[in-house]
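User: Let's play a game. I give you a shape written as tokens, and you guess the letters that built it. Ready? Here's round one.
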């Protein structure tokens, strides 16, 4: 797989500017705390949320977060706050305690967004940007990354949404954020992410449920279909005409039907369903399109992504 062309920069210090923006995003009172591994894209995520109408603040001292949220309870725009190991008075337990306290106080929705990334990609981003990792001042870069990953594991485990940016361009990250954070309603309804992928490029690290479509008839071996994708009607018709397709989709949706309300009832805000095939361009794409359409018909919010088709997206 060709790497996404536009690498995330290593995080920069300072606060993101907060220009005026329309109050059409998610409504006041909502808060998202953006955290994760250094270099995983926190700055890009905050800028993306700012573009969606959120008020974005980076590197706010943790001790001031509660006061900021309480003092802005009547604000029109929702608030996105970037917090990581460079934040003054940062600590995993204090961050978790702050999130729980804000949740207990009520008055708005609070989400914890964790940005993850593979070690090799993080090393490449820091090498390209020539910036120093915050925990690698006196040790090799890879050691600093491993140390930070172990330190932040409790935050990742508690996160409402984990986004792995290893194979995401900034544009693809903004697309995912738009699917999760531009809703005008304040319900805690489940947001379902459906993604297609190629097994030869590895499983999506953020996947909750993974289904294999490699048993279906492969359009790759039809010369007239090979250049197309599963979004093209000719390929979709070929895949769905396989006698095994209808029973597979029926069984898959039959499994999901009771699971979705149970996930929602347990308070899960985001669910990622991954559909894989060999190349990630034909069968998995066609099946993912069908699954996403079915999820929409259930009245659920859904965001659809085709990982391998996003190569070269700017």
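Assistant: Ready! My guess for every position:
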């Amino acid at each position: 797989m060709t790497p996404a062309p536009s690498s995330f920069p290593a995080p920069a210090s300072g606060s993101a500017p907060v220009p005026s923006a329309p109050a059409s995003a998610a409504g006041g009172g909502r808060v998202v705390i953006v955290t994760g591994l250094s270099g995983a894209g926190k700055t890009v995520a905050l800028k993306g949320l700012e573009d969606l109408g959120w008020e974005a603040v980076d590197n706010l001292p943790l001790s001031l977060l509660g006061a900021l949220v309480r003092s802005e309870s009547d604000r029109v725009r929702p608030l996105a706050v970037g917090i990581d190991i460079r934040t003054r008075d940062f600590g995993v337990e204090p961050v978790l305690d702050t999130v729980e306290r804000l949740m207990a106080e009520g008055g708005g929705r609070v989400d914890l967004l964790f940005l993850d990334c593979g070690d090799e990609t993080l090393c490449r981003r820091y090498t390209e940007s020539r910036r120093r990792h915050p925990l690698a001042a006196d040790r090799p870069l890879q050691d600093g990354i491993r140390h930070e990953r172990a330190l932040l594991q409790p935050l990742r485990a508690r996160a409402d949404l984990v986004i792995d940016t290893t194979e995401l361009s900034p544009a693809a990250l903004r697309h995912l954020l738009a699917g999760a954070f531009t809703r005008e309603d304040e319900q805690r309804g489940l947001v379902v992410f459906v993604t297609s992928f190629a097994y030869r490029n590895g499983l999506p690290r953020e996947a909750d449920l993974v289904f294999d479509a490699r048993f279906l008839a492969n359009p790759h071996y039809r010369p007239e279909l090979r250049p197309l994708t599963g979004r093209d009607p000719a390929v979709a018709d070929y895949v769905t005409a396989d006698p095994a397709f209808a029973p597979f989709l029926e069984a898959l949706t039959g499994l999901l039907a009771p699971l979705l309300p149970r996930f929602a009832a347990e308070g899960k805000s985001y669910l990622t369903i991954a559909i894989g095939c060999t190349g990630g361009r034909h069968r998995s794409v066609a099946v993912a399109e069908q699954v996403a359409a079915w999820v929409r018909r259930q009245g659920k919010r859904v965001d659809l992504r085709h990982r391998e088709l996003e190569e070269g997206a700017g």
